[in-house]
Amino acid sequence: MGASLSGCGAGFAGLLACALLGSGQADAARPPVRGIIYNEDGNQRFQWDPPGAIKPERLDELVDALANSQVTVMSLCCCSQTTTFDTHAPGWEVFCRGFDPTKGNDQPFFGSLPMEDRETYRRFAQNQRLLLDAGICPMQRMIDRCRLKGISPWINLRMNDVHDAMLLDSPLHSSFWKAHHEYWRVPDERPSPHWNDRCLNYGLQPVRDRMMALIREVCDRFDVDGVELDWNRFPLSLRAGEELEQGRVLTEWMADVRAVVRAAETKRGHPILLVTRVPARPEVAVGTGLDAVTWARRGLIDHLIVAPFWATTDFDIPVERWAELLRDTGVGVTAGLDILVRPYPNAAATESTTEQSRGAALGALARGSQGLYLLNYVHTRRVPSLLKELGAMDTLAGKDRTYVVTYTDISIPGQPLPAALPRTLAPGEAAEFELFIGPRPAAGTRGEVRLTLTPQTAGAACVAAVLLNGSPPAAAAGRVFDGAALRAGYNTIRVANAGASGMAVEGVELALHPPGG
């Protein structure tokens, strides 16, 4: 794509090229953000213990679990639609407002929440209430613990979280959201198939003002090293069809955010990074109004995180394209991983295996990611070992790892990006799939192609002939390839239907087994 950005032509490529010519240059480069940035989900901290049983030491333990690993930053979530601390910002309230620990799960606090979900939400509300009533600010406690353990604390602000969007009276929703349906991206109360329709519209001044009030409060109240604006929670924040025009308004608002963070730097006497998280594809980011390249060119941000939404890990984040677009701005790029893996939209999700997490991480680092950003990795017992591996290429290179054909789970409204899977093949028909694996594997590494195939005729057998970069498997029967078939960068897997009936290719993976891995 780099060669196509030499001028300011029409379309998103041209818009990205124009961004390179934006007004002004970024400030002098800050030190690179290396290692693992660990996103801490703001409600999870309250849900490890039964309702009313949390102790302040639980917050310490969540930080301590990241010590002595490759985690350099803990990004502490302070809000979804409500806050994780006792806020005073206009238009905001803490999640547990109105909850009465002496009453049952039929109390008004739970609104329209299904009865089977109320105990989980009770755990969140009652434990949060217990700490706040004891005079403990969970955010401050965890920030202090990060400092003690040598981990850099950031504040994470979810810019447009709409979990439970289909329930109009969920306790997750703010009073602001419930009172102002006219501020939604699609201002309509009828059932909608898309949660993103009920995101707040940042093209509207009251929406921007409300978020700015919270940004001002956290910058004034908490002494941190970074402020992360998470635009991927959720990823559509402007009205469909108005993204480019309103994106320019959003850019000017980002300049105001920069001024607030700069004032906090002066107050605290140390640098505070302004960080944003946006969709993984540059054209999708700018096309949804999140013009991160212009933000960087104008010196409005210090670091950029590029990542999927949540549906699947993205094994093909074009970090090198971002790095080229941000060249000479001093803004570094970190790729993000989520815990789920789906081969195509609406496919069943699985939790990323250790080997899949390694593959996604190594691919991103090889393409220039300064480190790695992890979201939702709190849910797996494998996290402690992964936190010692995923942040650097040298701790991944000799280990078994797997690469998966997935898809891009954020797109410009009305312009969905095609998914490679599923692919139906008639007898004799073939298809090719590409996977980026990073450097050429060490000598002696074996490559194993794994396929998920479904016959189009009941009872028929699926027979596939597979080539890896044009080479046949090491044995006539099987899908294991010797190291000579592997190459650096993209590897091409060709799947041909060698059977007598049609079949659907629904999953493609390449597992690498280094010697001793």
Protein described:
By secondary structure, the chain is α/β, with parallel strands linked by helices. Helix content is 25%, strand content 20%. The chain is built from 12 helices and 18 strands. The protein has helices spanning 11-20, 56-64, 118-133, 138-149, 175-179, 205-221, 243-268, 282-287, 292-297, 319-325, 354-366, 383-386; strands spanning 35-40, 71-79, 152-158, 226-230, 273-279, 303-307, 332-337, 340-341, 350-351, 371-374, 401-404, 423-425, 430-436, 446-455, 464-468, 480-481, 490-497, 503-513. The protein has an 8-stranded parallel β-barrel, surrounded by 4 helices. Strand 6 (303-307), helix 10 and strand 7 form a beta-alpha-beta unit. Helix 6 runs parallel beside helix 7 (243-268). Residues 1-26 have low confidence and may be disordered.
Quick overview:
This protein has 517 residues and is α/β, with parallel strands linked by helices. The protein is built from 12 helices and 18 strands.
Number of helices: 12
**Helix share, percent:** 25-40%
Give me the side-by-side strand order of the main sheet. 1-2-3-4-5-6-7-10
Beta-strand percentage?
A: 15-25%
Task: Name the poorly predicted regions.
Answer: 1-26
What is the SS-derived class?
A: alpha/beta
The pLDDT mean sits at 93
Write the element-wise H/E pattern from the N-terminal end onward: HEHEHHEHHEHEHHEHEEEHEHEEEEEEEE
